[in-house]
């Protein structure tokens, strides 16, 4: 497995440089399943130490690419032509410094600002917009986290007065954020600031 250290994170997960967050998540789970101990695909083909190294690299790749801010920083360290077999960029364009899709452009200024300052600007509506940008359905998050879909809907609509108490809500927010690959602490703290303020303004029934 000497070649593993020469691969970048996109190559480790076997995805394109412009892969969506949904594609990154699916690739990560597939690689974890393929290179788990006892897998038929790797049974007797490699030693336990080699398997552990692969698993570490897979997790390391997902931890970076699954976090949009860390991914943006990581992309800056890569040559735009490190993956010709996947991106097929064609001949270099002397008038274009980086022909690979720029994530911050595709995100749009609103979502880019959201990712840059989550703990201050986090709202349910921004979380929903980011989830939709990644192509992840709310039902997928409900299945993954086992959170009642109604609560997830209330979070995304910022309906503070109908949400559960803060102890449960913090847990829901952190699990939701992990499914989106963004900082769970920043999401929970940012949303809860709005939640406390909004709940105090809500009319008493």
Any descriptors?
single chain; 205 residues; mainly alpha; Helix Hairpins; 434 Repressor (Amino-terminal Domain); 2 domains; 12 helices; 62% helix; elongated
The tally of strands reads: 0
CATH architecture group name of the largest domain: Orthogonal Bundle
Q: Could you tell me the mean pLDDT?
A: 78
For the sheet with most strands, the description reads:
none
Structural class: mainly alpha
Which class of the largest domain in CATH terms? Answer: Mainly Alpha
What is the N-to-C order of secondary-structure elements (H for helix, E for strand)?
HHHHHHHHHHHH
Question: Please, how many helices?
Answer: 12
Quote the CATH topology of the largest domain. 434 Repressor (Amino-terminal Domain)
Name the overall outline. elongated
Outline of the structure:
The protein is mainly α and 205 residues long. The protein has helices at 9-13, 21-34, 48-65, 68-75, 84-87, 103-116, 118-121, 124-134, 138-145, 149-156, 166-180, 184-201.
Question: Could you explain the architecture of this structure?
Answer:
The chain is mostly helical. It folds into 2 domains: 2-87, DnaJ domain (Helix Hairpins), CATH 1.10.287; 107-201, 434 Repressor (Amino-terminal Domain) (Orthogonal Bundle). Helix content is 62%, strand content 0%. The protein contains 12 helices and no strands. It has helices at 9-13, 21-34, 48-65, 68-75, 84-87, 103-116, 118-121, 124-134, 138-145, 149-156, 166-180, 184-201. Helix 6 packs antiparallel against helix 8. It starts with 8 loop residues before the first helix and ends with a helix. Mean pLDDT is 78; it is low at 39-45 and 81-105.
């Amino acid at each position: 497995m000497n070649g593993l250290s020469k691969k970048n994170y996109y190559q480790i997960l076997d995805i394109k440089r412009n892969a969506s967050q949904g594609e990154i998540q699916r690739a990560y789970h597939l690689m974890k399943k393929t290179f788990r101990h006892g897998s038929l695909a790797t049974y007797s083909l490699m030693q336990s130490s080699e398997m552990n190294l692969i698993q570490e690299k897979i997790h390391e790749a997902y931890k970076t690419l699954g976090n949009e801010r860390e991914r943006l920083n990581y992309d800056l360290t890569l040559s735009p032509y490190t993956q010709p077999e996947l991106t097929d960029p064609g001949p270099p364009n002397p008038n274009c410094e980086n022909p690979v899709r720029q994530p911050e452009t595709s995100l749009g200024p609103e979502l880019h600002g959201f990712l840059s300052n989550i703990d201050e600007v986090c709202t349910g509506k921004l979380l929903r917009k980011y989830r939709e940008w990644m192509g992840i359905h709310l039902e997928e998050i409900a299945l993954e986290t086992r959170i009642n879909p109604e609560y997830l809907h209330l979070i995304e609509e910022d309906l503070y007065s109908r949400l559960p108490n803060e102890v449960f809500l913090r847990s829901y927010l952190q699990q939701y954020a992990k499914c989106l690959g963004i900082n769970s602490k920043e999401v929970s703290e940012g949303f809860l600031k709005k939640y406390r303020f909004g709940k105090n303004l809500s009319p008493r029934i």
